[in-house]
Amino acid sequence: MTRVKDRNTQTALSLSSNRGSDDNALVHVQLISNIANSRDKDSFAKLFDFYGPKIKSFALKLGAEKSIADDILQETMVAIWRHAHLYNKSKGSLSTWVYTIARNKRYDILRRSNRPEPDPLDPSFQGRQATPDEEVEKLREENMLRNAINNLPVEQAKIVRMSFYEGKTHQNLSEELNLPLGTVKSRLRLAIKKIREEVQEAVDA
Amino acid sequence: MPNSHLDDLILAEYASSSLGEAQSVFVASHLTLCPDCRRVNQGFEKIGGLFIHHENDSPIEDGCFYKILDNIESSRESKELKKQDDILAELKEIPKPIRDKLPESLGSIKWKKLGKNISFIELECNQPKTSMKLMKLSAGTHIPVHSHGGKEYTMVLSGGFSDQYGRYERGDVAIRDVLEIHEPVVDEDSECVCFVVTEAPLKIKGFIGFIISKILG
How far is A110 from chain B (nearest CA, A)? Predict the structure, then answer.
């Protein structure tokens, strides 16, 4: 695992971290595998101890009441148990998988409908086999993204977190940050450009 | 593979679920047909994954874990997938996020005619001031010059059309902003089926345009 260059520097991803969070990613993959293969409740409890409080924080981000946040947390954990066999580590970290489930449950519960998503079983789904280079790149991508986000200027890192993670609309961001809508969009575009350039540099290195 | 893709900002909004229902259906439908945009979307989801991994902890109610275990043991997984065989041949080419908005009884789907060259199906949409439609346009149809009260999102499902901004085929998206005037023309050799989301009524020039925009809204 690549570590953030300087742990003493306050960055978007290390600032709020209160655990040695990179090392446990490998342990989590083993835990989800135990759940998938032998329905192991001890492994499930360990995943709950790590992710439960974080999912609850995520669920509270858009101003949901505590009872709704608890529903989102419970439904997310139930889905993790049921779909443990669908987690594919070659596609991304367990945290990304957990995030997509929590995000979908939040959408479904707050909007009372299922989040529209592309479905690989859909007859109209247009697949494409990734090249071996792309597969390798995918595995390295999260480390590259982590470094890129940590290297963003504070104001861009903040807006990326609020938009990409917390799920705030551009209009919400404009009101909350007291910035014109155009400035919100240009700041996001600039952040995406920087992230992309840094990831590309790492790929080329 | 599509040639006209979604912008980073709308993909990021979809990845974080901050888009409205209709725009989410639009993006999910393009992602169904476009591996390139799916790759960008996955990258944005990984950013969400990094943030949740480093998230602060909120206190959990006592007994929450046992409630989850009870849930797991007492409820059964719902089988929500429709049998693929049930999908009418004509609809197989339509991405599932759009099909899911069609009436339950697929046999009851009827195209509503608007003149001899345009027909449409209004899809269920619970988002205020927003509409989702499937539109079928005969070969060679000219849509009158129009602008929009809000954004207009168009994705080609079959056939093709052109406007002054470019040419569009299956999977291609054209997103027109307020005040962007355009005049789409359908290819001469085949009809064109599109999925169209409008955030506000079209503004079509002239009296005929007024009537069309009242109907298509």
Answer: 11
A8 within a domain of the structure (yes/no): no
CB atoms within 10 A of CB A106: 26
* H or E element at residue A29: helix A24-38
Choose the closest CB to A142 out of B33, B44, B46.
B46
Quick check: A141 contacting B, CB < 8 Å? Answer: yes
φ/ψ of B22, rounded to 5, equals -65, -40
ipTM of the complex model: 0.89
Domain boundaries, chain B: 1-217
Type of residue numbered B210: F
User: pLDDT truncated to tens, each residue of chain A (205 aa)?
Assistant: 333 334 344 566 754 444 455 667 789 999 999 999 999 999 999 999 999 999 999 999 988 899 999 999 999 999 999 999 999 988 889 999 999 999 999 999 998 888 999 999 999 999 887 776 776 677 688 889 999 999 999 999 999 999 999 999 999 999 999 999 999 999 999 999 999 999 888 878 7
- Report, at the CATH architecture level, how domain B1-217 is classified: Sandwich (2.60)
* Chains A & B: contacts with CB separation below 8 Å: 202
CB contact under 8 A, A127 and B35: yes
* A 41-100 residues inside an 8 A Cβ radius of B: 41, 45, 48, 51-58, 60, 69-70, 73-74, 77-78, 81-82, 91-93, 95-100
At residue B26's C-alpha, the angle toward residues B87 and B9, to 5°, is: 150
